[in-house]
Fold this protein.
Amino acid sequence: MLGIVLDLVIIASLIALAIQVVSGASLFRGIIHFIVMGLTLALAWARLGAPDLAMAEAAIGAGVTGALMMVAYRRLVEITPDHNPSRTGSRSRLALPIAVGAGGLVGLLGLGATLSDPEPGLAGLAVLEALQDEALGNPITGVLLLYRGLDTLLEIAVLLTAFLAAVAVTRREDLDYSITTRDPHTPLVGALLAIIVPLTVLVSVHLLKAGSHDPGGAFQAGAVLAACGVLLVLTSRVSASSQSRPLIGLGIVAGLISFSLIGLAAMLRGEPPMALPGMWAVYFIETAMMLSIALTLVLLFAGTESLRRNQHG
Amino acid sequence: MDNAALYVLAAAVLFGVGVYGLIVSAHLMRKLFAINIMGNAIFILMVAVAGPIDGAPDPVPQALVLTGIVIAVSATAFALALMVRLYQETGRATLADDNGPGNDD
Amino acid sequence: MTTEALALIVFVPLLVAAGMVVLPRSWLGLLIRIGLLPLPFLLLIPTMEVVDNGAYRVVLAGHDSPLGIVWLLDPLSLLMLWLNVGITLLVSLHASFSFPPSDQPARRFWPLWLILFASMNALVLSADLFNIYVTLELVTLAAIGLIAVEGKPAALRAAMRYLLLALMASLLYLLGVGLIYGQTGVLDLYLIAEHLEPAWLTITALALMIVGLLIKSAIFPLHAWLPAAHGNAPGPVSAILSAMVVKVSVYIIWRLWFWTAGDWDLDSAATLMGILGGLAIVYGSVAALVQQRLKMIIAYSTVAQLGYLMLLFPLASTLAFQAASYHLVSHGMAKAAMFLAAANILRSVGSDRLSRLAGIDQRLPLDVFALALAGVSIMGLPPSGGFLAKWLFLEAAREQEAWGWLVLVAASGLLAAAYLFRVLAVMCLHPRRRLRSDRRRRAPNLASVAAILLAVGAIVAGFASAPVLDLVAAGLPPGLAP
């Protein structure tokens, strides 16, 4: 009973927040509502029994997406300080009927599918069965790395492509430092970083390691690590640089290259491509992916293709 | 997972809200909000409509949604960069009111 | 051997793209060669396999479906691989001049170019609904990044519109995938057929996926994003967008329609798809007729030519399959040639407005020749690949006494002739005027050669058709096999 009430509260807030996001007056508040909606969605995932998704949603869906939206908003404001766009474009009378129709169709399909009491999926059953022979305890990590590795590899490639495309459309001349603090020497900042940075690194390593048995994995860990990087950018410990550095480049593609090479190397052993040689490969690939994800997200946040270190006492 | 039907309905409403936002907003960032809301609705649906295994949700759609979340953030990141550049070049963060496709050489 | 070759066909360009991010710029020229040149040779191995055995499955990671992901190599996917490799290589010849490795923009262009190449190879092989989603996203993001790479406002705006629509399209597709997994518990394109009953739920799910793919392939009336995107992209990008990127989505629709739902009775839906194709042909041609810019004319021509690929649904026979596949090949080459020639003209004249192109054949004879030659195939004049494709369509329509489609195909050639002759008339017949061009830079000759080679390819396709047609006939979907 309590569960149902909780579900209803979560769903009501999700819907209310979504309405706020699309129809609120200010863009800035829209972003805030979007982030809060992401966090509420994380609760919904937890209620649906999907803790991995709850973590991913909180870290990536709410955290990273929100941060990227904030910084993009900041850049718009930079160009036009009173960036206050008119709320709506076409005041089409058709908007509401179309939206109701689309939502109705999705609801009809979804209810039809749920109420038909679907059998357990063959793929899902196969995963749970195959997992018994593996040292992995988390079926989702199993799907992502062992059984549907190509999806994950291509997903890393999607992130790389988005980064390359974003760099391609970013004007080189205006590397902006506006997102960083004006006064990096504020006494408490250094002390704060000294605590937070090691802590986030620890958390992300834990998430990565936990991913083999409990909820967690490279993506959640990468997002947490990225948060740490974003903090370093904001406090101007590192800043945007137009000079490409091989080490940064290597970090960006480490996940893709190590997954691809280990996946291809299987053929040298006479196994099919993408077969992993053992648990060490899972850990290795996940670590490389975590670093790539974190670095790519930080670069996307800073709007640059490279970073340099700044010296602050 | 006995709450699946409830969340399916929530997904339907969220999808509708997203579609509405996509139609009525001119600002590109609002359109991106709307598309992300629609995406989230579909993610919820994907997990909720799969048959549970021993009372727990099927791991396969969960893994697919995890992949979907990363793809969504990637696409959003690129779209935001594109929006900023468009604003720098044209002074507008909307697609409306352009003088027809391809009129400028 | 085949497994190894297919893996390399996907991974070599992908890894080379990653290498471009790490290695210094001086390596770029070498990397481009490594990423592209071995591919045709690698592709010979799967070709032998298909010729000998018909089809081949690669069970990735050793986990067969429903657990894992499978690549299926069959005659149709082999054809798509050859088309992608061949056209990408020839267009790359052009791109190595428009984006020379020594220039600054090259570092931005080439990694995306190779990712696009690799992802289309992966897409045509994939037999998994969700893997197709991921791969399509990769194709789309790389393609849109390439459209915007020069940062021109018109291209940026077109890229943004394309991106929003493509994201929406992907969501529709993903919704369908989620529903189908919920009903069947499998994701393998070919395995689903055994588990999928044509109930209202599954039909709607499939319809959602197809609508998503129709948006991505810009089929009328969902074409609105295409002309600006293809018309404002850099030359080589326009070429590959029209020749390949929109086609791979149609290819996936064919797979879903004739393989996954091969047993279903979809007659009325097939007629609807055919009508959309017919409208696309008429609308695209008429719109091309009133455009003022060369690249926009070619872009609207793509809207029209895509319509032919939809005629396969109502005609659905061996002949129709050969016709549609052959159209894919000949239009791919001809359209790529046209966009490359237009890029050379644009670069040389500084504008591609028709009013500025009068008498251009004197200055750029090679490019105008390529344009005219490719035009022969687009109009479907003999002897060209386009002619053969149209002829096969006519035969297919006659065989089934589908007179409506027959008239449409016969008349559509005239429409194409109208908009193309308008272009050629301005260029060659117009009383010569002094060109007002301030920039007299001639396009490098090899860039014109790339256009000529593709145009000649589209013509030669009219003679050397037997291997392709036999290949397609050997790979018919289960429902169509005689």
Observations:
- Chain B has one domain: 4-90.
- Chain B touches chain C at residues 22, 28, 31, 35, 38-39, 42, 45-46, 49-51, 58, 60-61, 64, 67-68, 71, 74-75, 78-79, 82-83, 85-86, 89-90, 95, 98, 101-105 (CB under 8 Å).
- Chain B has three helices and no strands.
